[in-house]
Write a structure and sequence with these properties.
alpha/beta; Molybdenum Cofactor Biosythetic Enzyme, Chain A; Molybdopterin biosynthesis moea protein, domain 2; Molybdopterin biosynthesis moeA protein, domain 3; six-stranded mixed β-sheet; 7 helices
């Protein structure tokens, strides 16, 4: 068996960043920019009003107060998206809405609240200014957000909703990004039944395919569901060949020591095995290798294959530990590792066989300190232990376990206080 770190190192050595594609900006959420994005325009394009009010010359407001207002004649109104046609001269004011360009001649905006507009009862030809204004008051300058010619988003940026908004503000409808990996997902086992069919006695529903496909979606990939392969070599090979156009293959089941665990044998025939056991609990059976696929133009390419255990917790946990970093590397994303934090463990965890334990836990913050408690039974077939968990307590392989009250490291599966 190899360590978790050795397994991940071997996996990432066999993973390459995918090609670049042009994608509509709303479709590239979570993808990585493959080019710098610069602006050809100023944002905002013109000086504009930060408030509803009156655009005036600050010199005309000198000494203004509620006891001594300065009365100005109102020469018009300007709204967002329009340009006022005249110049604001001495003694004049223009009624202005938020976002409207500042009229020529004006150098500040006085808010409605600082005028006597509401007291004039419909007399809109004049307005009293009740406060002294300074140049630039309530004015958003042209280029205040983005200046023409500036670098706005750097190559390698992960696109979030804010980046989508910024690109839209530049008038971009599509950008170049590293494409999403297509991940073929296959379940194996004569005992597995599709969720759309009745459940015969002695069978189980195919939960692994849907849990793993959901993880692919969550982390930015495109799942391709291959169905279920029977525990015979011909069936497994036929199903795997349906996924040879994918960027990654993920199977569940068939990687242990049983008579019908044939994924390793097929992988050895169809490609090469890099390793197949990891010193961890759960999830020791993990076959990783490269299977031969067809490249564009008829050449041969190698597709990484993760042979995960059939137990649903082991399958999902090893996807998080190993397939997720591989997906992120394919997409050019950093960092590859999940966030970890220190927490006080609420109960003892024994380590009896020298493997690294990943215990499903609920992490909560109380009084400025994180605490972790197990989700209940930790068997690798207890899928609800993953549904309840937001973190994995890590018990090192070279320790006999941890005691209640110890500070432990927790790999967070869900993190509400920052990015994943």
């Amino acid at each position: 068996m190899i360590s978790v770190e050795q397994a991940l190192e071997k996996i990432l050595e066999n993973i390459s960043v995918l090609e670049v594609e042009e994608s509509p900006i709303l479709s590239c959420l979570g993808q990585v920019l493959a080019e710098d994005v610069s602006s050809t325009i100023n944002i905002p394009p013109l000086d504009n009003s930060a408030m509803d009010g009156y655009a005036v010359r600050s010199a005309d407001t000198v000494g203004a107060s509620r006891k001594s207002p300065r009365t100005l004649r109102v020469i018009g109104t300007v709204t967002a998206g329009s340009i006022f046609p005249s110049v604001v001269k001495k003694g004049a004011a223009v009624r202005i809405m938020t976002g409207a360009p500042i009229p020529k001649g004006a150098d500040c905006v006085v808010r409605f609240e600082d005028t006597d507009e509401s007291e004039r009862k419909g007399n809109s030809s004049e307005v009293g200014i009740l406060t002294e204004a300074v140049p630039g008051l309530e004015v958003r300058r042209a280029g205040e957000d983005i200046t023409a010619g500036s670098l706005v988003l750097s190559k390698g940026t992960v696109i979030r909703p804010a980046e989508v908004g910024v690109m839209a503000s530049l008038g971009l409808s599509a950008v170049k990004v590293i494409r999403r990996p297509v991940v073929a997902v296959l379940a194996t086992g004569d005992e597995v039944v599709d969720i759309a069919k009745p459940l015969p006695e002695g069978k189980i529903y195919n939960s692994n395919t849907y849990g793993l496909a959901a993880l692919v979606l969550r982390y930015g990939g495109v799942p391709k569901i291959l169905g279920i392969a029977a525990d015979i070599e011909d069936s497994l090979v036929a199903k795997l060949h349906l996924g040879l156009d994918a960027d990654m293959l993920v199977t569940s089941g068939g990687v242990s020591f049983g008579d019908y665990d044939i994924v390793r044998d097929v992988l050895a025939k169809e490609g090469e095995i890099v390793f197949w056991r990891v010193r961890q609990k759960p999830g020791r059976p993990l076959a990783f290798g490269m299977i031969k696929g067809t490249a564009e133009g008829g050449g041969v390419r190698k597709i990484p294959l993760f042979g995960l255990a059939g137990n649903p917790v082991s399958a999902m946990l090893n996807f998080e530990l190993f397939a997720r970093p591989a997906l992120f590397k394919m997409m050019g994303r950093e960092p590859l590792a999940k966030r970890t934090l220190g927490a006080v463990i609420d109960e003892d965890i024994e380590n009896t066989d020298g493997r690294r334990i990943f215990a499903r836990a609920i992490v909560e913050k109380r009084g400025g300190q994180y605490f972790a408690r197990l989700t209940g039974p930790q068997g690798s077939g207890v899928l609800t232990s993953m549904a309840l968990a937001n973190g994995l307590v890590v018990v090192p392989e070279d320790t006999p376990g941890v005691k209640k009250g110890d500070i432990v490291q927790v790999m967070m599966l869900d993190w509400s206080e920052g990015p994943e």
